[in-house]
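Hey, I'm writing a tutorial for new members on how sequence and structure tokens pair up, and I'd like a real worked example in the thread rather than a made-up one. If someone can provide the structure for the chain below, I'll link this post from the tutorial.
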Amino acid sequence: MVEKIQRVAQEIEAAQLSNAAELEQFRIAYIGRKGIISSLFDDLKQVAPEQRRQVGQDLNQLKNLAQARFDQAQEQLVNAADSTAAESAFDFTLPTVPNTLGTRHPLALVRNEINRIFSRIGFNLSEGPEMEDDWHNFTALNFPENHPAREMQDTFFLSQDRDKLLRTHTSTVQVRLMETQKPPLRSIMPGRVYRNEAISARAHMMFHQVEGLFVDKGVSFADLKQTLYFFAKEMFGQDTKIRFRPSFFPFTEPSAEIDISCFICKGEGCNICKQSGWVEIGGSGMVDPNVLENCGIDPQVYSGFAFGMGIERIAMLKYQIKDLRLFTENDVRFLRQFEGVI
């Protein structure tokens, strides 16, 4: 009996189960009610009583072996059938899905270009927090207590005592730079700023600025003019016209506003340039001695210039965009126009 069980076990292990027909024959021959294993259980009563327990255990192992061999082969056949069906269902004549490149936002493109232009003449990059305090946003920059910029209609305050606010310009980074580093300082500060303004084609409550600062011994207004002349011609082309208009800013003296010729109307007049042919891109001037002193720099030894420009305004001129709101509406029809720009 033991030899017969061993022989059947060898047959089970050696059985070929490569298709459904062979699997069915295996089931009938070994697992079915009239199969070999069932007949061996019937013969168990002929075994001597002292051997019957051991032989019964051997028969149970043989039955489990046959069932496991059957289940394994059946699972392999099902998986193979599913794989074949999936392959046959795929249409190899379908066109491929093109690998499309993503787009860069025009403001990111302009900001990167600004960084590259100023880096070529020795300016490094500095950044600061968007949530500021009154000292860095107003007081250190020589804003008087009654200045209109300190009112709620112009500024987003974050605390009732108006000490915490969303920065209204990136000049706050200039203050932090002068407080923590010693001259010479030459850096630009791009970033997002916030002002409580009505949203229109020419204004927004959130926009981007880039400011520059150069502090050293013997810095003059001529240095400021040549720096901005270089920037305008590198950004907009060698035919770009630029002009300086006298102005007033609390943190610079003397001060001037920067205008360039309008690229959209070519100087003939449009809604962007207010029919003047010129577009203001920022302000500039020599750093006020009071600001230097507030930041711990001796104005008797050092002087410097500062400037600030709107990145949106530069992007509107460079790409001839007529509505400021397009930058924040996330309209893919607008953004896809910059796919080919790197």
